[in-house]
Amino acid sequence: MPLGRWTPLRHPEIDQVAIDDVLHALADPTRRRIVRMLIADGDRPCGTFGLEVSPSTLSHHFRSLRKAGIIRQFDSGRQRINTLRVAELDTRFPGLVDTILDSAPD
Amino acid sequence: MPLGRWTPLRHPEIDQVAIDDVLHALADPTRRRIVRMLIADGDRPCGTFGLEVSPSTLSHHFRSLRKAGIIRQFDSGRQRINTLRVAELDTRFPGLVDTILDSAPD
């Protein structure tokens, strides 16, 4: 049975997303780069970002973004796909993600 | 000689302020409350904020805000006065502090 091979990934409901988690998640240049790549190119699997960090560090960054409500992750075959929740976030914190990305030089 | 009784307080130049430090500093409800009180009431000494946190925790919060370039602190007699650098910050990160404060429910 392929279902149940993975622990289901937890995603906060948008009204449970905490501003402190969003700010901490975006206070890192690698995580901002992930968000910028998702904005530019749309959904993509974890292994395709070409970032020069170790797999465990990369997993940590994706987990931070997921727990902060900034991305959703779902498993498709052997790939874990990442998708942005910026439209949802924007209903809760209008303009926040854009303003942070505009402020960061990276 | 009253001068030299304190170690001079370090303040980053505005062009050295790091976005990551600003985001971490504002990812805390007590620190946001300090900023909101300074916006509402202007400069005030550390001991007058009426926050229910220990003196050491309060010192930590003020230090985080100072190192992130959000406040300046200077000693006047026996008091340490806090003053906002939001106008300066706004030249470097337009709208960032306001957008974060508007996003936070506290």
TrEMBL record, chains A, B:
InterPro entries: ArsR-like_HTH, HTH_ArsR_DNA-bd_dom, HTH_MetalResp_TranReg, WH-like_DNA-bd_sf, WH_DNA-bd_sf. The keyword Disulfide bond does not apply. Keywords: DNA-binding, Transcription, Transcription regulation. SMART domains: HTH_ARSR. GO terms for molecular function: DNA binding; DNA-binding transcription factor activity. Residues 11-104 form the HTH arsR-type domain. It comes from the Bacteria. The keyword Iron does not apply. Signal peptide: none annotated. It holds the Pfam family HTH_20. PANTHER family: TRANSCRIPTIONAL REGULATOR, ARSR FAMILY, TRANSCRIPTIONAL REGULATORY PROTEIN. This is ArsR family transcriptional regulator.
